[in-house]
């Protein structure tokens, strides 16, 4: 991931302003350590910190059209750039960068071209002919982006909050699937898929259609000119990503450059069962597997750095981001600059175990829609910033625009968890890849349920964080929490501890408003709490305080293995709730 920073119409074209923009841009250098670029046109500045993935030799930014009247700074990857280039054959391209198509598309189609882009992206385009500008962010918000307003009338755009928080009177996250046009004078949604409407999908489930759609999503993400790998936790989502990548890597340009043997990465506490599962999958697929261990103290020591880079005080996000942050540093030290990960599957298919309580297919579908639209504040934010902190790019095929359209167009009745029919969570995804002749994964991996309650290994990480927080936050401090933090008041010492660190780095009122809040049980939205009356009395983001969740509520059968895709009735009856989500490659359970 690269870092972009733009200051538009700041009423100051002085050298001092240029120096200030350069200074702020350097705050994003971790995102793009390969090159720095700055373009100035009057009182507008576009800067870029590049992480070179495609065309490392000549793809430096900002990028231009033929006469250099249109200037673009981009963070992301455009996977269909080759097809777009062919449609723009009468244009002259200066580089082989995938992002070079943006300026030329604007020449051809004006502001209506954004939906033609297939990829993850955030960009600022400056048209120097009339000094107008266009800002856009990808459909789901895989790339991070913020917008701010200065007292002098300027508009600021930054990949991270730290690039603009000290210089803007107000700032907020840039909404996914939107563009901001200076010509139109505000935001406009460019991403309007059918699944966002109130209509409940009715397309019958076709396992081969779903399988091919996801294979295509993974294959297009093998576009790279640098070494890469996959994050592998041994769970369903990351294992499928690894399996498809390993199956189709041979014959690609990436394989010709870097070899056809896939590298996989996993991080966890010593002895985690997920480390064992990841190694089993790696052996089955024949990957070069890299297993990284961390201790509770390692994680605690990194908390301040994690909060600075991730830019949140959300408890579950920080818990999951810390091991991913540590793993990304190890990955970068091996010379790898890009990884493919499994975020988004639980949101699309209702993989969190609280979906067992969905009362009907309509509620199930609406909850998946809410979860997908909130990803940019949770798992996308974590995956993007935890890896970018060390100059590593994370690609997420489950959030491919075309795949989401296919998966979200399926009648949600097929996604419903129905133990009497042998359908566990994400059954339609598992079934789509249940190939007897050419198996993608061993059966017990393909039908492996979340193992967040398998033993105390993960709990030692969470309990260690809670113990550490209790040493820094007193009972007296908690009594005054509502007065000190009236917005999103922390209700635990751990939350209070993270909030103190966050506000030390980002003291502005706008900063605290960028972090979501509200009631949640085991990562549910507030609306889903209505599914079970008992949940409203047991609100906890981790789910350990929810009824039927903590390990003490289970007998030996609760941890019985799943056979032939059927989930034990004891688990159904107790409705164990999922903690966090999308921590692919992270062998911890919370």
From TrEMBL:
ATP binds at residues 231, 267, 341-342. Pathway: Amino-acid biosynthesis; L-asparagine biosynthesis; L-asparagine from L-aspartate (L-Gln route): step 1/1. CDD domains: Asn_synthase_B_C, AsnB. One of its GO terms (cellular component) is cytosol. Keywords: Amino-acid biosynthesis, Asparagine biosynthesis, ATP-binding, Glutamine amidotransferase, Ligase, Nucleotide-binding. PROSITE patterns: GATASE_TYPE_2. The active site is at 2 (for gatase activity). One of its GO terms (molecular function) is asparagine synthase (glutamine-hydrolyzing) activity. The record marks 343 as: Important for beta-aspartyl-AMP intermediate formation. Its EC number is 6.3.5.4. L-glutamine binds at residue 98. InterPro entries: Asn_synth_AEB, Asn_synthase, Asn_Synthetase, AsnB_N, GATase_2_dom, Ntn_hydrolases_N, Rossmann-like_a/b/a_fold. Residues 2-185 form the Glutamine amidotransferase type-2 domain. SUPFAM superfamilies: Adenine nucleotide alpha hydrolases-like, N-terminal nucleophile aminohydrolases (Ntn hydrolases). This is Asparagine synthetase [glutamine-hydrolyzing]. It comes from Stephania japonica. The lineage of its organism: Eukaryota, Viridiplantae, Streptophyta, Embryophyta, Tracheophyta.
